[in-house]
């Protein structure tokens, strides 16, 4: 047999486990898995490397249109593939918000072969567009509907039960939720301390998150609508979500699994500020407990860049959010190296998990007929996160200077070697992600 590409001599992570096999690619899809496959136009020697299913980051904010001084679709996706990410789901709180069919199609047009990775875009829910969401969520290239229950970057907010119920009643796809209770946070604004970002988790406290999580699960059950709760930060929420898995899936982020308030705020100041907040070491340990119990379904970076000048403002005038798409894979591989996370669980959280939760077509596993998306990693590589490696337009990372073990050395998307050893291909080839819910629209 003849192939366009063969990956040879690597440890390949198929649904059956790790195997010493080669992978043949033809026409952008996996055409063979075995030992002696044949000839290929391109052969990549993966000796000493692990070939994982392409990693999917299901929560990024690339800021285009309207906020391109922070990031844009090209720069954000370039950071993604340099970090080993093959596909992203981008959030709707841009300027203007992505809340109409016209604005969804505008993003898809901006992204075509300008984004380095494959992509899908969320539709932002509002009180005004609730009845249109059942049509908007079925536009090919959309990853579903996103609800902000608590105010964050941008103007998208749906915080009362009546409007939330109308949104949940309109459509069938799983709805992504930013679960912080707006009323409680408004009542606690006086707890913010001028110039002290460590007061951020005091203001946006555990109960702000728990109230919103309980409210949205109750409303989702009444509406018979599946939901996906983003960036969960408290162990109590994960314990509660674990009792409602029939209707609710959830995400945790590398930031909340890696940083702890006791160190992060004194060391990083406003650069540690995000929504929901970085919380205590006890919270972080609790997230790991429930992750190892199998409760979180996916890991997303919540890549949310702001410029150095913006983050330098005194708290609470400083904006919330930090970049993370480029560091998602290496941070998690470092947790693998240090024994907190198995490689199998990592794959579940970054590839097969997103496929299952969001109903992706042709992605999420190394299997015949699937897209030839691979994140090729060196599990033993020791290195330091340097600013010269970062590609985000914001030009900083809370993990700069961190010593890590494990790094993506290759990003292959639909058989195209988009990144190899920190070097990009000559052109971007990103295409919309396909979903079961929109495949035959």
UniProtKB/TrEMBL annotation:
Assigned GO CC terms: cytoplasm
The keyword Amino-acid biosynthesis is annotated on this UniProt entry: no
Top-rank lineage group of the source organism: Bacteria
GO biological process: purine nucleobase catabolic process
Keywords for this protein: Hydrolase, Metal-binding
SUPFAM superfamilies: Composite domain of metallo-dependent hydrolases, Metallo-dependent hydrolases
EC number(s) from the headed UniProt entry: 3.5.2.3
CDD domains recorded: DHOase_IIb
Required cofactor(s): Zn(2+)
InterPro entries (alphabetical): Amidohydro-rel, DHOase/Allantoinase_Hydrolase, Dihydroorotase_CS, Metal-dep_hydrolase_composite, Metal_Hydrolase
Database matches in PROSITE patterns: DIHYDROOROTASE_2
Occurrences of domain Amidohydrolase-related (ranges): 51-418
Entry GO MF terms: allantoinase activity; dihydroorotase activity; metal ion binding
Family recorded in the similarity comment: Belongs to the metallo-dependent hydrolases superfamily. DHOase family. Class I DHOase subfamily.
Function: Catalyzes the reversible cyclization of carbamoyl aspartate to dihydroorotate.
Record's protein name: Dihydroorotase
Natural source organism: Sphingobium chungbukense
């Amino acid at each position: 047999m003849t192939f366009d590409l063969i990956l040879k001599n690597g440890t390949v992570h198929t649904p059956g486990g790790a195997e010493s096999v080669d992978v043949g690619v033809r026409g952008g899809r996996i055409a063979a898995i075995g030992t002696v496959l044949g000839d290929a136009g391109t052969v990549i020697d993966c000796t000493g490397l692990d070939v994982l299913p392409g990693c999917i980051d299901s929560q990024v904010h690339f800021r285009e249109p309207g906020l391109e001084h922070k990031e844009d679709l090209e720069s954000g996706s370039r950071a993604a593939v340099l970090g080993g990410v093959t596909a992203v789901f981008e959030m709707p709180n841009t300027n203007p918000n992505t809340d109409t069919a016209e604005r969804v199609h505008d993003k898809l047009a901006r992204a075509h072969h300008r984004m380095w990775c494959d992509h899908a875009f969320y539709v932002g829910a509002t009180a005004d567009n609730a009845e249109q969401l059942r049509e908007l969520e079925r536009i090919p290239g959309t990853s579903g509907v996103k609800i902000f229950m608590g105010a964050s970057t941008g103007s998208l907010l749906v915080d009362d039960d009546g409007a939330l119920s109308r949104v949940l009643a309109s459509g069938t796809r799983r709805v992504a939720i930013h679960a912080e209770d707006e009323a409680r946070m408004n009542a606690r604004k006086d707890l913010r301390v001028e110039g002290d970002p460590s007061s951020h988790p005091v203001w946006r406290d555990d109960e702000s998150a728990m109230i919103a999580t309980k409210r949205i699960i109750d409303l989702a059950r009444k509406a018979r609508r599946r939901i996906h709760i983003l960036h969960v930060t408290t162990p109590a929420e994960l314990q509660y979500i674990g009792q409602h898995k029939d209707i609710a899936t959830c995400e945790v982020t590398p930031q909340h699994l890696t940083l702890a308030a006791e160190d992060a705020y004194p060391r990083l100041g406003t650069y540690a500020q995000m929504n929901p907040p970085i919380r205590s070491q006890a919270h972080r340990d609790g997230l790991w407990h429930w992750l190892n119990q199998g409760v979180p379904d996916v890991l997303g970076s919540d890549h949310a860049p702001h410029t150095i000048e913006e983050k330098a403002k005194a708290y609470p005038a400083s904006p919330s959010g930090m970049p993370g798409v480029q560091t998602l894979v290496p941070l998690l591989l470092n947790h693998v190296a240090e024994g907190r996370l198995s490689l199998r669980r990592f794959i579940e959280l970054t590839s097969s998990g997103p496929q299952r939760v969001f109903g992706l077509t042709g992605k999420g596993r190394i299997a015949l007929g699937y897209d030839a998306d691979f994140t090729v990693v060196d599990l033993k590589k020791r290195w330091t996160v340097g600013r010269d490696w970062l590609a985000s337009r914001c030009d900083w990372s809370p993990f700069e200077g961190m010593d890590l073990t494990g790094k993506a050395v290759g990003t292959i998307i639909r058989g195209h070697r988009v990144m190899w050893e920190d070097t990009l291909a000559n052109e971007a080839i990103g295409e919309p992600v396909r979903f079961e819910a929109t495949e035959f629209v």
